From TrEMBL:
GO molecular function, one term: metal ion binding
Region (Disordered): 430-474
GO BP annotation list: cellular response to oxidative stress; hydrogen peroxide catabolic process; response to reactive oxygen species
Domain of life: Eukaryota
Protein name per its UniProtKB record: Peroxidase
Function: Destroys radicals which are normally produced within the cells and which are toxic to biological systems.
InterPro entries recorded: Ccp1-like, Haem_peroxidase, Haem_peroxidase_sf, Peroxidase_I
Transmembrane regions listed in the UniProt entry: 598-617
A Pfam family hit: peroxidase
EC number(s) reported in the record: 1.11.1.-
Domain Plant heme peroxidase family profile: 13-220
Keyword hit for DNA repair: no
Matching PANTHER family: HEME PEROXIDASE, THYLAKOID LUMENAL 29 KDA PROTEIN, CHLOROPLASTIC-RELATED
Length: 618
């Protein structure tokens, strides 16, 4: 994160999903998978389902022409014979509301695989972002099926970019978690007669991400049905693992060797992308992060709201003597840029995350988070140019300043900003049925037990609805449209010729198509101007789950914008009274003198992370 500077809206959103495990409204992705969770409805391993989902999405890659890879196309390929399974359908539903303008569906799939591996004790897989979503299925899926002979398997992995040795290793890394289930492969795992509860046959004796898949195979105690099945055609793990006389398997029998091999190969797996996609540098944990910062209007007052998030070592509690202070400078007037004094205020609330509620990526790095929220009144004529924080541990040592590497966190414009508290969203039933693209809304006929995979596949190609055995097509029968009425504050002196919004929602039902709409706002006739601002309003209706907006005002040939604004918390925005403000003479941003201090404290905060990563590589 050395080159990281606030604000970086995409980095900020990705970092929050990866390490806090949740969206900006608190809706949690990681709590679906952690701690190494079994799905209540099926008794299967959620982490394993997420890992397999990433593998199969990646499996469309073709090294020969650089097409396919982890691009989210799997959501359109769930009818393909090689993508057979209930785990895929449940995973699609787990992920459905998390992609947004800043986080692609394919990045969510990669993050899901990383979380799944981490929460079951596996290695920490570095996450680089920037995967691009496709909006239609890939041409030919190359994912292996148990019936494939060894040459077919080798060629399929070669096309994905992996050697024979890597095929063996990657398959062992995948099959250390999860199971074969009777619902999907009755010819391998017979269902219990007269019961609808699926029989789930784990690949190895542990639910953890560990080397048991290898050691049990080598010592002959394995129960892995893809090895021990009496149906030799279906014994793909046996064919793969023994394809070089077990020498690769022997090479990863050691626990640490297994972990480090899987770390490298699984990172490579989630970085298999079409050749025109360039991934970012690794998204690392920001030790002291501005989680949000915006001017707003609440309870008829202009306010500035921000949250500082600090790392908190898992085995320590926050000192009761700690004080956290927000400081800021005026943007206009005689006290511009703290010419005389800075404004300062203390948090209106603070909270430390219970480690069990955040991402396993944070907990395996040895941290949880302390959050400090500030709401301060802003005199709109002097406004705010920049802000920063001081954290005093009350231990006699000098305070630590967090100031964005020296200059303070700058407010680049105060001419236009979104007003969540005056904006509304209503859910209205969408009467057009939700189906997979190209699928029929009629459920497929349930397959009878004992059907061979080949005939199941044949049936699948003629029965286009998603194959959840005994169930209907996926997705809610009557999805909700969200009807938004947005309010934006615009400085009256700007006198804009146009105020408009670009809205985007990629979390649409079954990802049929992205939603995007540009619309103009009108000056409100019901909300009177106040303190030099007019209120502009406009509406949009989206079928998706996460509308993000870029708001723009055009004035004197220039466009002023606020971008990547989430709309997840409207109506329910908690109303908090602003804090008291005091004036502090002689403060500017912490300034150059404090840079040394900042570096020192950042380094200390990073230490547990560095140690944890070092320990997991070994
Ligand atoms: C030789 C190639 C492979 C074949 C033929 C194969 C086949 C299978 C089959 C038949 C299942 C059972 C699915 C079900 O019952 O729903 C399965 C599960 C699984 N596979 Fe593979 N696989 C292969 C390689 C891989 C690789 C490379 C990975 C990832 C790195 C992987 C990850 C998984 C996971 C995590 C599960 C468990 C899913 C769950 O519990 O829901 N597989 N595989």
């Amino acid at each position: 994160a050395s080159s990281y500077k606030w604000p970086s809206p995409q980095y900020d959103a990705l970092e929050t999903l990866l390490y806090e495990g949740r969206r900006s409204d608190g809706s949690s992705l990681s709590s679906l998978v952690a701690p190494c969770r079994k799905r209540a409805s099926t008794g299967t391993s959620v982490p394993a389902e997420w890992l397999r989902f990433a593998f199969h999405d990646m499996a469309t890659h073709n090294v020969d022409d650089g097409t396919g890879g982890l691009d989210g196309s799997i959501v359109y390929e769930l009818n393909a014979p090689e993508n057979f399974g209930e785990g895929f359908i449940d995973t699609l539903s787990d992920f459905s509301t998390f992609p947004n303008k800043a986080i692609s569906r394919a990045d969510v799939i990669a993050i899901g695989a990383i979380m799944g591996v981490a929460t079951c004790g596996g290695p920490t897989i570095p996450f680089r972002a920037g995967r691009m979503d496709v909006w239609k299925g890939g041409s030919s899926d190359n994912a292996p099926i148990p019936e494939d002979d060894i040459n077919t398997l080798k060629d399929s992995f070669r096309k994905m970019g992996f050697t024979q040795e890597e095929m063996i290793q990657l398959t062992a890394c995948g099959h250390t978690m999860g199971a074969v289930r009777s619902t999907d492969f009755p010819q391998l795992v017979p269902p219990t007669q007269g019961s609808t509860t699926p029989v789930v046959k784990d690949f190895d004796g542990t639910t953890q991400f560990d080397n048991a898949i290898v050691t049990e195979y080598l010592d002959g105690s394995t129960q892995n049905v893809l090895v021990v099945t009496s149906n030799a055609t279906m014994a793909s793990d046996l064919r793969v693992f023994s394809s070089d006389g077990n020498s690769t398997m022997k090479g990863i029998a050691d626990a640490n060797k297994f972990k480090s091999t899987c770390q490298t190969l699984l990172q490579r797996m989630i970085e298999v992308v079409p050749k025109d996609v360039t991934l970012t540098d690794e998204i690392t944990l920001i030790p002291a992060k501005v989680n949000s910062a915006a001017l707003s209007y609440e309870n008829k007052k202009f306010v500035f709201k921000t949250e500082l998030r600090l790392n908190q070592a898992l085995n320590q509690t926050v000192s009761s003597k700690r004080t956290v202070t927000l400081l800021w400078c005026a943007a206009n007037g005689t006290n511009k840029d703290c010419a005389d004094s800075a404004f300062s205020a203390i948090p209106v609330s603070n909270m430390t995350d219970d480690a069990s509620t955040i991402s396993p990526l944070a907990t395996t790095a040895g941290v949880t988070f302390a959050h400090y929220q500030f709401v301060v009144p802003i005199d709109t004529s002097s406004s705010i140019s920049k802000f920063w924080f001081e954290v005093n541990e009350g231990d006699g040592k000098s305070a630590t300043t967090y100031n964005n590497g020296g200059d303070g966190y700058k407010i680049d414009q105060d001419s236009i900003f979104f007003v969540p508290m005056l904006s509304h969203v209503d859910s209205v039933a969408n009467t057009s049925p939700a189906t997979m693209p190209g699928s029929s809304p009629t459920p497929a006929a349930p397959l009878t037990s004992g059907t061979s995979a080949a005939s199941a596949a044949a049936q699948a190609t003629t029965a286009p609805a998603l194959r959840r055995r005994g169930g209907g097509p996926i997705g809610p029968a009557l999805p909700q449209n969200k009807v938004y009425n947005l309010v934006i504050a615009v400085k009256s002196s700007l006198a804009p010729s146009r105020v408009y919004v670009d809205s985007t929602d990629v979390a649409t039902p079954n990802f049929t198509q992205p939603f995007s709409q540009t619309f103009d706002l009108q000056k409100s006739s019901s909300l009177p101007a106040q303190d030099g601002y007019d209120f502009w309003t406009g509406g949009v209706t989206s079928p998706g789950a996460q509308l993000m907006v870029d708001i723009h005002a055009v004035a004197s040939g220039q466009t002023i914008s606020q971008t990547y604004v989430p709309t997840l918390l409207l109506d329910n925005t908690p109303q908090v009274d602003p804090s008291n403000v005091t004036m502090v003479k002689g403060k500017k941003t912490g300034g150059a003198l404090r840079v040394g201090e900042v570096i020192g404290s950042v380094w200390l905060a990073l230490l547990p992370v560095v140690m944890a990563i070092g320990a997991s590589v070994m």
